[in-house]
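Batch job 17 of 40 flagged for manual review because the log was empty.
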Amino acid sequence: MRLSKKGFTLIELVITMLIVVIVFGILANLVGFSTTFFRDENTQVANQTGLRQVAVTFEKDIRKHALNQSQISVIGSCYTLGGAITYCHDIANQSITRNSVTVARDIQTFTVNYDALKVNLFIKTILDSRNQFVDISYDVYFRTDK
């Protein structure tokens, strides 16, 4: 009688399983990295959007309430525009408030510089998980009567 040699040996099965585990491990790492990268990108886009919204709102408030540099006053880290709107940088909470309502979070720097011609707004976020930050420098020119 002749014995049939159908099937796989134990070594063949172990090597195949080892290759499958390595391939699935690599795929799991790629998926994990992609998910983390996507989450970080979403955070950075949200930060950029928040800073742009603050800058646009700030510009509208200047155009409406502070027609020249004499209508901007500074007390500590708070900037008052025409006596009506106050922007404050709360360093402890790392946020910007507009008339005591939080308009941006995770803010490291908020400065307003102005002269007779323009106002410069500079905002910088804290470092994210990839050690990157978002900043914006925004110039608003006073309207002149010419």
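Reviewer: the log was empty due to a logging misconfiguration, but the result itself is present. The mean pLDDT is 88. Unflagging and moving on to job 18.
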